[in-house]
Amino acid sequence: MTLDVRQFPCLSDNYGFLVHDRATGQVAAVDTPDAEVILQALKDSGWGRLDLILNTHWHPDHTKGNERLKAETGCEIVGPQEVRRAAPLDRMVVGGDQVRLGETVFEVTEAPGHTLGHVTYHAPDAGLAFVGDVIFALGCGRLFEGTPEQMWQSLQTIGQWPARTWLYCAHEYTASNARFALSLDDRPEMKAHAQAVLALRERGESTVPTTVEQELRFNPFLRARDAEEFALRRRAKDDF
User: pTM of the predicted model, to two decimals?
Assistant: First the structure.
């Protein structure tokens, strides 16, 4: 892999990510849940710089560190237009755009549903993607702004990426997601997977990142046959 990813907990259940391009030394933060924690992680990394912020969507638990990190590092803030609802933004991106971190190219994909302007950052050559709140391990984001049809299509797009793509999602929700998945799926392999997830969480270990392959096998939202079935499952999860 041409990238190093440093993952760390923020707030109550967010993850922060620092991404380091080995070839050039450039560094990006993916979303900014807590500037203080991100600055400490940057110091601990020894990478010595912050060149970019990549925002996936506008929600404050993903953008509230933008202003301070910009002030202290001079980094460029990249994200969808909707970020300006909550925080500073230097460069607006839409689906089909590319963002370079040194020699690494991230492809921007529109992924509406959780919010209308949500995007993901997929680096095919590195075999990974930062997916914000679109898809979680065994779950997906709530529909705060978009429609079930939009979110289902966003999930289908992710499901078409190479199976071994690592998905860095922004929250640690997997234990509750596993319990919901078990209410719909009693396959022995589903039970074994859920038990493994719950054991990880009992030990205080992360379940992120996951992979496209794993989510295609076990994620009840990605496995929905159509947008209608997805909508039923999303409503059921909201009330679970």
Answer: 0.97
